[in-house]
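In the previous chapter we treated chains in isolation. Here, by contrast, the input contains two separate entities that must be folded as one system, with a combined length of 634 residues.
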Amino acid sequence: VQALVLGEQAGVRSDYPLPAPSRTEALVRVSVAGVCRTDIELSKGYMDFAGVPGHEFVGVVEECVALPGIVGKRVVGEINCPCLDCRLCRAGLTNHCPSRTVLGISGRDGGFAEYVVLPAGNLHEVPDGLSDEEAVFAEPLAAAFRILQQGAVPTDGDVLVMGDGKLGLLAAQVARLVGASVHVVGRHLERAELLRHCSVNFHEAEVTPTHSFDAVVECTGDADALAQALKLCRPGGTVVLKTTTTEPNTLNLTEAVVNEIKLLGSRCGPFAPALRALADGTVRVGGMVEATYDLSDGLAALEHAARSGTLKILIQP
Amino acid sequence: VQALVLGEQAGVRSDYPLPAPSRTEALVRVSVAGVCRTDIELSKGYMDFAGVPGHEFVGVVEECVALPGIVGKRVVGEINCPCLDCRLCRAGLTNHCPSRTVLGISGRDGGFAEYVVLPAGNLHEVPDGLSDEEAVFAEPLAAAFRILQQGAVPTDGDVLVMGDGKLGLLAAQVARLVGASVHVVGRHLERAELLRHCSVNFHEAEVTPTHSFDAVVECTGDADALAQALKLCRPGGTVVLKTTTTEPNTLNLTEAVVNEIKLLGSRCGPFAPALRALADGTVRVGGMVEATYDLSDGLAALEHAARSGTLKILIQP
């Protein structure tokens, strides 16, 4: 089958083996997949990943021994595949299972391919009213909902989202859901239009005053932005860390100590509220797809997605 | 009066003016003062401080218009002097008041002098059973209790205190109070003796396994220790930041994002539980004083305190 492969022989291959699901896994025919910044990092060597990337997908189940009722359904899927048996799994921290595989990121082929395999328990049925192009945002939107799950957004507080990229636009909408007064600082003033439905304040390039936001959500993808986040957060406030980078950066955390700031690492989140918010229209992703590439042009898709300021790039097998 | 002064004409002076308390302040004759690592940093230029350092003291109140009942009492004092009128003060974040002065650190002369002045509301009477040499630990012990006040120590969890300096020894005892299983990693195996009364596990130089501690309290004073703290903390756990440094360091926080670690800045804490714990003997500071200097030898005291591995140095006017 056709697949985009990273590693020693990177490129789109047409002779990639059809993945074979175990009894508890499902074989899913991919309808569309989304390119994430992590895919770009993987293509540069992050995680030493070799195989098929792609962890945002919508598809139709073709085979599932353990859960035959799901065959034929349109699904999205959670990306962490835990052992369910270790100390962390038993404590409910399945997304942190040390022996987990992660779809298209670690130890498991992902969705830039005609077919993908995931444990049946990872799948969520897509509500009928949603298009594939909306449902493919379930995974990044779940990561935005993680911020609420962690209790990092005060309902009556002032929240600043740094970055007007894909995750920033989703995080701003999610923070608004709980009633917070939400500000976004970014470089693309025209993107304020994408947030018009939810009364978010859009700032270009600079925000004042310093030390005033109850929570700052750092979604810039730029490791250097954290120093600025620490300056904008109020004493005793929370800075949510969403940016991962391969390179370390230079930082003095003394300001975090003196101002007793809480820095909160935040990664994958819950799919169910993400799908409900998309179905209800309380979170909107219309206008966030910049281009769709055929899987055979997968490398061009990655290249386009890597350009600074690009919104969502989709890949269709 | 005699005072140790930092700034342009650093040194011990005998002609320093007697501080004049306002109606709401108290004049306190200093009995003994403790040297903190922050004092060493101030002497190197941290905060651009000029004046009398010293924010750990025990003394006797000589004058207080607003609270005459406190005259003649032996006291210790909270170091933050807030405006009580700004947005942060009204929200209860008085220790973070942006226009606060801080005893011996910012905008207010401290306790390495014959006399010190503080708002009457900052003073706490020392219980009779405590010696001056015990009571002088109230301020750093309060900073250790701040960790409990922030809810950072899980009562049934595994806690690692990094550093066996003054703050590390206090933080370990405080973490033990709430029932946590406490480990200390340090360089001075003989200091395990100081923690014998409270069943703390002492490790020299290295701790395993990685990713296993529910909370890691970083008290090394070394900015580079944070990378190690992130490795030792379990996914979803808390790293308490106590170290402040003038120099930035190089750090990659990707591990904190992927493992969803909470980094929690922690500074000044509550005096009342600190004084009660010292009076009850649940926290012990016996053996933690390394030397006592006369105020006239104040510079030698700072020099001694600056040597690596030194426990508490006291200064007596």
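Chain B has a mean pLDDT of 94. The interface with chain A takes residues 88, 93, 95-96, 98, 150, 211, 223, 226, 234-236, 241-254, 256-267 of chain B (CB under 8 Å). Compare these points with the single-chain example from earlier in the chapter.
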